[in-house]
Each structure stands twice: as C-alpha cells, then as structure tokens.
TrEMBL record:
InterPro entries: DNA_glyclase_Znf_dom_DNA_BS, FPG_cat, FPG_Glyclase, FPG_N, H2TH_FPG, Ribosomal_uS13-like_H2TH, Znf_DNA_glyclase/AP_lyase. One of its GO terms (molecular function) is damaged DNA binding. SUPFAM superfamilies: Glucocorticoid receptor-like (DNA-binding domain), N-terminal domain of MutM-like DNA repair proteins, S13-like H2TH domain. This is Formamidopyrimidine-DNA glycosylase. It comes from Streptomyces abyssalis. PANTHER family: FORMAMIDOPYRIMIDINE-DNA GLYCOSYLASE.
DNA sequence: AGGGTAACCTGTATGC
DNA sequence: TGCATACAGGTTACCC
C-alpha cells in the first residue's frame, strides 16, 4: 500500500503487533522478496533469527524495524502491491505469501509479507546515525524528509523547486525532493491548490509552494484519519482491513465526473505510463514559457518568462 | 548533470 | 469463450 498515509497505517500496526517481539524463524518463499542481499535468502533468515524487533520507523514510503543487534535493521518497501500482515499461526497461506516471520510468543501471531507484483520487499541494512538526519538505513540516505516530518525543510524544498527545470507533479513524485507523495496524493494536492500538473516548478512563488505543501499535509492527514485509501483488498492494514479515504478523493479516479468545486467534468490524461486527473477549469494548463521568435522586421520578440535580475 | 523513458511483475477490466 | 490490450497507488537503471 503505497503512499505515505497507507504506509504510516502499516507502521502503526507493526509498532503495536511486532515491535518488542523475538524472532524464532524466517521463511523466505520467493527469492525476489529479499532485496539487495547478495548473501541470499538463507543468510537473511539467519541474521534475523534470535533477534528482537525494536520500534517501527518510517520515512516517506519506507518502513524499518531496528534489531537488538546494534546498528542493524530490517527495511521494508511495499512497492505497488506489498502487504505486511499479522496473522494467526494457523491461518491459510495467502496466494502471494513471500516471507513469513515467526516469533517466540506465537500467540501474538506471525508477520507475513505478501506481494502480488513483487515490486516490494524486505532487506537488511546498517542503520546509520546521520548528524542532521537522525538514524536511518544506509540505502535510503537519498530519500528526503516527508511533509509530515517536523524537520521537513520548506525553504530548501522551495529553493530546489525554483532551481529545477521540470514540472510540478514530477517534482512531487521525486522522492529525493519530498518523500511519501505518490500519484494519488499528488493529484489530490494539485487539485486543492488549483495547480496544473505540468506547471513548471521554476514558476512557483514561495507563497504558492507554502500553499501546496499545506494541501499535501491536509490531504495526507485526512487520509491517515480514515485509515488510508483502498480501492480493493490489495491495500490493507496489518489486520487486513481497508481504509475508506477513497470516498473522499476529489481528483484521482474521477474522470468525467463533475469537479466538486465548479462542476466541470474532470479529465484524465496519460502521464508517465500512468494517469493524471485534473479539472480543466480550476487547473488550467500553464501558458507556454517562451514565445516563438517572430520573423525579423516584425514588432519584437517578447519573452514571457524572462528571469528577473540578469 | 539532470531530465525523461523503459523495465521490473501479476492480476483485472475492457473491447473485439 | 478466447484473445489482445490497457491499466494499476513505485522505484530504478539507463538512455540522451
């Protein structure tokens, strides 16, 4: 369950049902579910066995559980279809069960990683203490803080947007600029901010950036309060329950339905091998940044977006 | 250097 | 019914 609110729902479940428990065994049923571990699945299992999970952490869409083996942690990414479930030991195996973790207190259930598309997985890493960044797994050092992180640096984010020569939705999905935002919440926040997804980031003023970030936080907090967004049984919490934020979506998945602000039919456009949903009236496409040079002798070429100061 | 695209997978929905 | 195609909430390697 991919974006920040859904991952946070899972983190809370792990914190409650997995943290503090001692691991007795790990069964890897699909080799690809263990990521970036050259020593292989058997070694992965051996390094977990006998250790205890610490508190559940999250940055953006990544989750991790430190082990009582100091400086070592288990990192999880759900990809497009991954689930972390706490199941009674006797429950029938799910069709796409990839990894099973059993504990010294079996009455508390076992932890299962289930993943239809195998874009997600678990991996084992060193947890580094980065002076300015807190403790986080070494391989996600490039992942930016997420908008719900109290230490998210809004000023630096805005500076980065101004410097980039890209469009606003691309930037929102760039996990090295801001993490946790995916296709759904990007479309929702852009709709709320009345910004077209192809708006150049360099054209955003500081107040616009502040406003956009406010909408991202609002929609994510609202989704979190509703248990996340679920379209089907693929996206569930650790107890297998769906969130119900889908009914509150204003943009995502609403092609041809009336904009909840102005009534204009919403549109869907193919975008980066997926879709963007927007209101053509509330979120008009940006004007081209540069005018085509006029023929010599004509009135003058006007450059609409000359950058201020040299 | 940084932006943009294709690939990694399995399943479901839709149209012919 | 069968078959082909499009699409799905993410990330990465690799083009240019």
């Amino acid at each position: 369950m991919p974006e920040l609110p859904e991952v946070e729902v899972v983190r809370r479940g792990l914190e409650r049902w997995a943290s503090g428990r001692a691991i007795t065994d790990v069964e890897v049923r699909h080799p690809r579910a263990v990521r970036r571990h050259t020593a292989g699945a058997a070694d992965f299992a051996a390094r977990l066995r006998g250790h205890r999970f610490g508190p559940a952490r999250r940055r953006g869409k990544y989750l991790w559980l430190p082990l009582d083996d100091p400086g070592v942690c288990v990192l999880a990414h759900l990809g497009m279809s991954g689930q972390l479930l706490i199941q009674p030991a006797g429950a029938p195996d799910e069709r796409h069960l990839r990894i099973r973790v059993t504990f010294a207190d079996p009455a508390g259930g076992e932890l299962r990683f289930v993943d239809q598309r195998t874009f997600g997985g678990l991996s084992l890493h060193r947890e580094l203490v980065v002076p300015d960044s807190g403790a986080l797994p070494d391989v996600i050092a490039h992942i930016a803080r997420d908008p719900l992180d109290p230490l998210f640096d809004e000023r630096a984010f805005h500076t980065a947007l101004r410097r980039r020569r890209t469009t606003v939705k691309r930037a929102l999905l760039d996990q090295s600029l801001i993490s946790g935002v995916g296709n759904i919440y990007a479309d929702e926040a852009l709709w709320r901010a009345r910004l077209h997804y192809e708006r150049p980031t360099a054209s955003l003023t500081r107040p616009r950036t502040t406003e956009l970030l406010g909408h991202i936080r609002d929609v994510m907090n609202a989704a979190l309060a509703a248990g996340g967004t679920s379209f089907d049984s693929l996206y569930v919490n650790v107890n297998g329950e769906s969130g119900y934020f889908e009914r509150s979506l204003d943009a995502y998945g609403r092609e041809d339905e009336p904009c909840r602000r102005c009534g204009t039919p919403m549109r869907r456009r193919p975008w980066m091998n997926r879709s963007s949903y927007y209101c053509p009236r509330c979120q008009p496409p940006p004007r081209p940044r540069r005018t085509v040079p006029v023929a010599p002798g004509k009135a003058g070429t006007r450059n609409v977006s000359r950058r201020p100061g040299k």
